[in-house]
Amino acid sequence: MKLLTHNMLQCHVKGVRNGYPLRIEAQQDGGRFEVEVREAEFSADFLRHILPRLDWAALLEAAKALGEVAVGLPDAPPTDAMMHDDAFLQTFHRILLEVTVVEGELVCPESERRFAVKNAVPNMLLHEDEV
Amino acid sequence: MKLRELEGALGEVRPFGKPKVALEQYPTGAHLAACMLHTMAGAFDELEGCVVADLGCGTGVLSIGAALAGAERVVGVDVDPDALAICKENIDDFELEGEIDLLHAAIGAGVPLPIRPGSVDVVVMNPPFGTKTKGADAAFMAAARALEPRAVWSLHKSSTRGFLEKHALKTLGFSSAEVVAEMRYDLPKTYKFHKKASLDIEVDLWRFGLERDED
After folding, report:
1. Phi, psi of B134 (to 5 degrees)
2. ipTM above threshold 0.90
3. pLDDT of B88
4. CB-closest option in A38, A39, A45 to B49
5. Which listed residue, of A38, B13, B76, B186, carries a Cα 20 to 30 Å from A15's Cα?
6. Is some CB atom of chain A closer than 8 A to the CB atom of B184?
7. Is B119's CB within 8 Å of A7's CB?
8. pLDDT-flagged residues of chain B (< 70)
9. Phi, psi of A36 (to 5 degrees)
């Protein structure tokens, strides 16, 4: 799961009103937490296309949860000048599109429901009583 | 990428090990998938630079094809962990781990997807035709509509054309519903109850459009 995907995900358990953003944490059983950087093709145009649709606060919080590998985002959404600065765009690209959560858990901020991420795939299948 | 190259590449995608009839797991043929994606990318320019969701991604033919044909990022969603495992192998073989993310979630009536509306540009899908679970095709359409994409590209049995148009425009509130192409789904014998070695089913390639403020 890349942080772009994380930015899209919300808890959809029945009754939850504000299931966004999901916190990224280590797995509760065994405490596994694994993050890696998977190289992907860089496109400045795509970053500029996607920026207005990102929830910046959610991205920032997710990046902070990942530590050193995802450092370098500003507190406020990047300015137009930054979106034309190659060094910044490279950092933004890496954090949004290359940093991958391989093992961990996603936690709903309202219900505290935990969703496992295994082998980079979030499992957001609901139980019968959650639908 | 040229149509023939795309079709050739998709011919390498590994199929289902043991397809599950309740989920209507039928392979999306390389030819059909390539034609579909080529139309999206070419005539409609709805792949290049896009974030695409593939609902019911199965073994990943459409996800991989979308990434090869120019989509910037793809999220493949499926309820079946076995399909997702094969899909992952396929993605690794094509070295598209950077371009495609997978999500394990159900797509069905009354279960919203765990995806924030407006976060994908385009949905592509080859949904169940609803022959085993009645209404499964309509449920996929509703799930796709809820994501508020610019367009949903989907394959459906031609025999349901009248119903689908009404369902899309009246019930789901799409702003347009258009059969872009009539195709043939060459269905190889997949399950024991299939009597013939292969069967041609007439399918429609639909584009359901949504007008969004930002576009």
Report:
1. -60, 130
2. yes
3. 97
4. A45
5. B76
6. no
7. yes
8. 187-199, 214-215
9. -140, 165
What is the structure's pLDDT at B107?
A: 94
Q: Which long-range contacts (CB under 8 A, 24 or more apart) does B40-44 make?
A: B40/B69, B40/B122, B40/B124, B40/B153, B41/B69, B41/B70, B43/B180, B44/B151, B44/B180, B44/B207
How many domains are contained in chain A?
Answer: 1
Residue carrying the six token digits 């300015």: A79
Sheet holding B73-78, edge to edge: B100-104, B73-78, B51-55, B122-125, B151-157, B198-209, B176-188
| Residue range of the domain that includes A66 | 3-9+19-130
CB-CB neighbors (< 8 A) of A2 in chain B: 73, 101
Cis omega (within 30 of 0) on the bond before A21? Answer: yes
CATH number of the domain to which A51 belongs: 2.20.25.10
Unique residue bearing structure tokens 């599109």: A97
Cα(A6)–Cα(A29) distance, integer angstroms:
21
Other CB atoms within 10 Å distance of the CB of residue A28: 11
Q: Answer yes or no: is A115 within a domain.
A: yes
Which pLDDT score is estimated for B201? 82
In whole angstroms, what is the distance from residue B83 CA to residue A50 CA?
A: 29
User: What is the rounded distance in angstroms from the CA atom of residue A24 to the CA atom of residue A117?
Assistant: 9
Q: Output the pLDDT for position B20.
A: 84
A82 in any annotated domain: yes
DSSP assignment of B75-114 equals: EEEES-HHHHHHHHHHHHHTT-TTTEEEEE---BTTB--S
Q: What's the pTM value of the predicted model, to 2 decimals?
A: 0.94
**A14 found inside a domain:** no
Instruction: Write out chain B residues lying below 8 Å of A52, CB-based.
Output: 214
A81, part of any domain: yes
| pLDDT tens figures, B22-43 | 888 877 889 999 999 999 999 9
